Amino acid sequence: MPITPFHFGPGAAIHAVAPRHVSFLAFCAANVLIDIEPLYYMLTGQYPLHRFFHTYIGASIIMLATALIFFAALKLASRFSLPDLLQWQSLSARAIWLGAGIGSCSHIVFDSVMHADITPLFPFSETNVLYQLVSLRKLHLFCVYSAILGLAILGIRQWIKARHAG
Questions:
Q1: CB–CB of 18/58 below 8 Å?
Q2: From residue 29, how far is each of 4, 156, 163 by CA, in Å?
Q3: Contact 15/22 with Cβ under 8 angstroms?
Q4: pLDDT for 95-112, tens place per residue?
Q5: 10-22 pLDDT per residue, tens
Q6: Model-level pTM greater than 0.90?
Q7: Residue 142 burial by CB count (10 A; 0-12/13-18/19+): exposed, middle or buried?
Q8: Whether the Cβ atoms of residue 25 and residue 86 lie closer than 8 Å to each other
Q9: Does the pLDDT of residue 165 top 90, yes or no?
Q10: In this structure, are residues 12 and 24 in contact, taking their beta carbons and an 8 Å threshold?
Q11: How far apart are CA 99 and CA 55, in angstroms?
């Protein structure tokens, strides 16, 4: 299933550990952009589903595209009165780049473990040494536990902040 929320779990944990340095929004955006590729191939009945953008070279292009989209949106926000949901307008360039980069690369790692049709090192190699490195169950549990950990850390941070403010 493309655009799975499982990918977001590790992003939540990484963002929770370094909230000013890694954008969770850019992390998620990169993951969604990568999964437009298999969604398209699913809808058109073409196989394999995971192609160019599910390689590290393709993921690097997605990272660049994600960052450029964020920078363009920030430029528009400075000219027009765009809503600042989740404080995206205060993201630093570093947080955007790191979020997009970690999101893109982690997506390839996780999908490489899950899907036989991925060749992450293409055009240098057509092998996928990560395929079934761990079971699908363990991979999903890792993603879910990462999300829980990230939410717990963020919740504790908010609780501490509220206690010191009041």
A1: no
A2: 12, 25, 33
A3: yes
A4: 999 999 999 999 999 999
A5: 999 999 999 999 9
A6: yes
A7: middle
A8: yes
A9: no
A10: yes
A11: 18
CA 22 to each of CA 71, 83, 118, 137, 142: distance values in angstroms, whole numbers, following the listed order: 15, 21, 27, 27, 20
Amino acid at the residue 130: L
Name the residue type at position 159.
W
Query: What pLDDT is stored for residue 78 in this prediction?
Result: 84
Give the mean model confidence (pLDDT) for residues 39-49. Answer: 96
The distance in angstroms from the start CA to the end CA of the chain is: 45
The residues, any chain, with a CB within 8 Å of residue 144's CB and separated by 6 or more, are 6, 9
Domain with 20 in it: 5-165
How many domains is the chain built from?
A: 1
Q: What is the pLDDT of residue 81?
A: 83
Cα separation, 58 vs 122, in Å, equals: 9
Q: Check: CB of residue 54 under 8 Å from CB of residue 37.
A: yes
CB-CB contact of 120 with 104 (8 Å): no
Which H or E run contains 121? Answer: none
Percent of the chain with pLDDT over 70: 98
Rounded CA separation 91/27 (Å) = 12
Q: Which of 146 and 80 is assigned the larger pLDDT?
A: 146
Q: How many residues does this entry show for the chain?
A: 166
